[in-house]
Amino acid sequence: MTSQVFHGLGIYWARYCGLFDLPELAPLPSFDDSPEVKYRAWRFWLSREGQLRTILGLYIMDGVISQFSGNPTFAQHMSNQLPTPSDEQTFNASTPDEWIELLLRKSPLETRPRFCDMFRKLFYPDDELTKDIPNNISLFSLKVVLEGLKSLVAESKRIEPAPVGVPSHSEICRVLDRIRRYISASPSLTTVEKNTALLRWHAVCLDALGNTARGARRLCYPYGIKQYIFGGGERFEADINPRRWISSDQASRTLLHASEIQRMASGLPLGLAHDPHLPGAVFAAATTFAAHALAGKSRIVFPTNVDWEVAVLLPQGSTHWEGRESPREETNITLNFIRGSLEEEGPGRVLRALSYELSSMRLLLRGLSLQWGVSMEMEEVVDSWISKCA
């Protein structure tokens, strides 16, 4: 039985056993209540919160396994009615009195937004509605939201045209830009937490531009490279034309996201190597670099600063940006890069050799293999691509 089958049985078992049914929240005790009353209420709250986080963890792993297996998710992420979990400070309170004090200072559980409501607000046409989402959503909650968007991206690309009811590519891109702005402006996330969330965001954007798992398989197939990372064994791949792909503006955008993933992954503390999304994000970035290098585009001039609003929202095939009356310099450089006309080094741009960047990512995957065995297989595939580039 595959890991996905085990995971699917785990989700159905959780539903059968009532794990998805959170108990009603008990009234918050006061400081004047007896120690026994406060302790029982605290332990009940912790148990309920632990149950909630376990379920949300299943949602995240559901998305990760779906990415590697190529199969749909078991859970319907966009209809997730669970509330967001508590903040870490309250969850890690060491005494009942500290817990009560922190809860009195913050919003109680009943006012926490449900994930399905957050998705609905994110996709609402009026950008003002997004402001109704609290500005203190935790990194854990953001990971659940991003996993929901990733599942939606996968569903939108599963068949052509997209299934009925699935938002268009432009609508998904608009929501991705809203999430990016939310993460960057969050007053409650640390710099490391923002980078962790944005790294996952860039990986979701990569898949919104092209299926990175299928791209990896198609890069391996014509060179006879064995890979058991995505979708199990070998598959027949036809109509492979990397040169056609790298000439598109979509391919240029993938390079921007891949470059940022490499930068962020290289700068994350070692303690965050356990993040389940990290190996897949690094390998997706390496796949993007390899696709260009194997097609003969080995040296590329990159912008040193990217206007991500342009990179995400510029309509495919557009030659100019109408988002602002006075475009910034980084906007013009980003536009030129997407058009494929950024060819010389200079202020705001840098020349990079993709073979060197691939070697750097191979070493990064080797370091991740201490936590994730799949990174060893990823490293072997990247090493094979590097040898073909040479």
UniProtKB/TrEMBL annotation:
UniProt entry keywords in alphabetical sequence: Metal-binding, Nucleus, Repeat, Zinc, Zinc-finger
Keyword presence, Zinc: yes
Gene Ontology terms for molecular function: DNA-binding transcription factor activity, RNA polymerase II-specific; RNA polymerase II cis-regulatory region sequence-specific DNA binding; zinc ion binding
Localization terms from the record: Nucleus
Ranges annotated as spanning the membrane: none
Keyword 4Fe-4S: no
Principal location listed in the UniProt entry: nucleus
Source taxon at top rank: Eukaryota
Name of the protein: Transcription factor domain-containing protein
Record organism: Polyplosphaeria fusca
